[in-house]
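hiii so um. not sure if this is the right channel but i have a protein structure encoded as tokens and i wanna go backwards to a sequence. like what aa goes where. can anyone help
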């Protein structure tokens, strides 16, 4: 089976490490503490200059829920235009109504705005009130892929739902398990779900390289970075299947 691995790039060094380790795609994000928000134009441009693999920036104007105002929706349209200008391969978006349904009308317009870029529906999916109805709405809206943990905190916990979604999708859209995907569980997750694409942060904490730190601030200045060895192990686990 031809598996693919997407890695989150929270900084340019992570993008470089993930590509060198063999990842197939980067989901480019800012603000890991918020679960990922739209990266700056400068970050996107730098990533595009460094990467030969697929580049999909997330289009998420803020952290929190996925119920967006018209002003936020207009920001998303403008950010998609930036991604097209910078020759990204795709974008990652998602919008919901207050009752947990997919905002099908505005999502469809975002997909149209992104064309000919590919479009992934992100983990807003895991906040839907009916994932099986949401799957059909997302297919109808023109998305190529759904990133989901099966409505559980991690993909291994949601494996049974993921398997059902893969079966219902029946090749019409890609179901890509993400959240908690690591080298020690990706093999069993692939076997249980039947999924062919996987998403991982494969992250580790990186200590600050500052020689001077003001201890009175009582803060930890570590950052996150992709773990190249973990990425290689994930790929090796999938290759053995």
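sure thing!! here u go:
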């Amino acid at each position: 089976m031809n598996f693919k691995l997407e890695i989150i790039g929270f900084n340019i060094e992570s993008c470089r490490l993930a590509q060198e380790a063999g990842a197939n795609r980067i989901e480019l994000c800012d603000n890991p503490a918020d679960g990922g928000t739209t990266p700056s134009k400068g970050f996107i441009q730098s990533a595009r200059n460094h990467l030969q693999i697929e580049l999909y920036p997330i289009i998420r104007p803020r952290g929190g829920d996925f119920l967006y105002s018209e002003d936020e929706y207009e920001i998303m349209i403008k950010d998609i235009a930036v991604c097209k200008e910078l020759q990204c391969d795709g974008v990652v978006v998602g919008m919901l109504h207050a009752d947990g349904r997919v905002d099908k009308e505005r999502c469809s317009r975002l997909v149209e705005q992104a064309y000919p870029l590919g479009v992934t529906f992100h983990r807003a999916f895991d906040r839907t009130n009916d994932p099986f109805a949401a799957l059909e709405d997302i297919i109808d809206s023109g998305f190529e892929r759904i990133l989901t943990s099966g409505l559980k905190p991690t993909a291994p916990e949601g494996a049974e739902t993921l398997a059902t979604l893969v079966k219902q999708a029946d090749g019409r859209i890609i179901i890509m398990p993400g959240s908690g995907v690591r080298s020690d569980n990706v093999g069993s997750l692939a076997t249980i779900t039947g999924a062919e694409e996987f998403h991982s942060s494969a992250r580790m904490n990186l200590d600050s390289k500052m020689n001077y730190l003001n201890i009175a601030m009582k803060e930890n200045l570590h950052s996150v970075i992709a773990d190249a060895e973990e990425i290689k192990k994930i790929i090796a686990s999938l290759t053995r299947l």
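oh and The chain has a mean pLDDT of 97.
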